[in-house]
Amino acid sequence: MTTTVAAYAAPAARARLARTTVTRRAVGEHDVLIDIAFVGICHSDIHQVREGWGTAIFPMVPGHEIAGVVAARGPGVAAFAVGDRVGVGCMVDSCRVCPNCRAGLEQYCSDGPVWTYNAVGRDGQPTYGGYSQKIVVDENYVVRIPDALPLDVAAPLLCAGITTYSPLRHWHAGPGRTVAVVGLGGLGHLGVQLAHALGARVTVLSQSLRKKDDGLRLGADHYHATADPATFEELAGAFDLVLNTVSAPLDFGAYFALLRTDGALVNLGLPEDPVHLELQSLNGNRRSLSSSGLGGIAETQEMLDFCAEHGVAAEIETIRADQADEAYERVLRSDVRYRFVIDTATL
Ligand code: NAP
Ligand code: ZN
Ligand code: ZN
């Protein structure tokens, strides 16, 4: 039996979000039906609603930072029971047989993962995200939210958390390593907490010193303003790893110079416009420019367990669904401390 539930959707590119309904598929053999409690607003929602990354599918129900409770399950579901606290991130399916899927890198599925929204599922139907009351997801793409993490502050971990955790682990952030996080927004404020919890020395590079107190409280050892040219002189060659979380094009050349020998600048931000690369400062000292996307399902579970153990969670501003457009405007102005989360009871 299908379920029709309230949702918020953009009817067309750049249109305001409006209340609507979506119909969720009947709970299949390996599916769980989730009562969504909270959903985070990721900057990627804004890029997609505005078609900043190219043609998108409308109506669009955004939302891929989903936290809720299992309300029903299919007869073949082994991992979850009704009442379990669960999360869903950016993907709801993948091919499961390609080398990346087999290696737990479902986000790099060579057949393309099925994104939680703005995509077409393997059943040929469009996917609709978490700005809605319920969602049906295959249990293999659902993770368990530990009891120590309240659902509202856990929701942003499903995208912003895993997107920063995965590169921190891959590039060995830990004791004796220096990490810079560029941009103290949704991704950035979790990147700082996670890098600190992993034992690295952490520096925030923000446009101004406006959020310095927060950055230090979240675990940064140092905090610098990128608007001040002295920052780049002072920090030349200082970092093993620079994580760029900025949603707009960055002057990468200036940041390459901050890397020490064999250091890596890992790009996470996905701006809508192309960037200009000044490569001379990358060439010295065998520096590298790389990228990272999200994280696999098992790694997402590992990240949630790590957060529960180390007291890492998002700092949030909880809003009603009808405040989402206003929240988008504030995110675009970098006026967010540090993630907007929609209480789905207001749908
Ligand atoms: P966000 O909350 O808006 O944070 C971005 C931060 O970048 C802002 O808080 C601001 O920090 C800084 N910033 C914004 N505009 C800037 C500008 N013009 N110049 C310099 N700094 C600027 O966004 P988010 O949700 O963290 O997402 C960040 C980006 O990552 C987005 O492009 C998103 O689509 C992308 N993303 C990528 C992945 C992936 O898998 N790679 C996953 C999720 C999101 P300060 O005020 O501190 O400077
Ligand atoms: Zn996201
Ligand atoms: Zn695959």
Describe it for me?
- The chain has two domains: 3-159 and 314-346, Quinone Oxidoreductase, Chain A, domain 1; 161-291, Rossmann fold (3-Layer(aba) Sandwich), CATH 3.40.50.720.
- Helices cover 24% and strands 26% of the residues.
- Strand 13, helix 8 and strand 14 form a beta-alpha-beta unit.
- The protein is α/β, with parallel strands linked by helices and 347 residues long.
- The protein has eleven helices and 17 strands.
- The chain is globular and about 65 Å long.
- Strands 3, 4, 5, 8, 9, 16 and 17 form a seven-stranded mixed sheet that branches. It has a six-stranded parallel sheet with strand order 12-11-10-13-14-15. Strands 1-2 form a two-stranded antiparallel sheet.
- It binds NADP nicotinamide-adenine-dinucleotide phosphate and zinc ion (2 copies).
- NADP nicotinamide-adenine-dinucleotide phosphate (NAP) binds at residues 42-44, 47, 159-160, 163, 183-188, 206-207, 211, 245-248, 268-271, 293-294, 331, 334, 336.
Sheet-strand content, in percent, reads: 25-35%
Count of runs of 4 or more consecutive helical residues: 11
Low-confidence stretches: none
Reported for the largest beta sheet, the result is: 7 strands, mixed
Bound molecules: NADP nicotinamide-adenine-dinucleotide phosphate, zinc ion
Which CATH class of the largest domain is shown? Alpha Beta
Amino- and carboxy-terminal Cα gap: 22 Å
Helix content: 10-25%
CATH superfamily of the largest domain: Medium-chain alcohol dehydrogenases, catalytic domain
Query: How many domain units?
Result: 2
**CATH second-level architecture of the largest domain:** Alpha-Beta Complex
What does the overall shape look like? globular
SSE topology string: EEEHEEEHEEEHHEHEHEHEHEHEHEHE
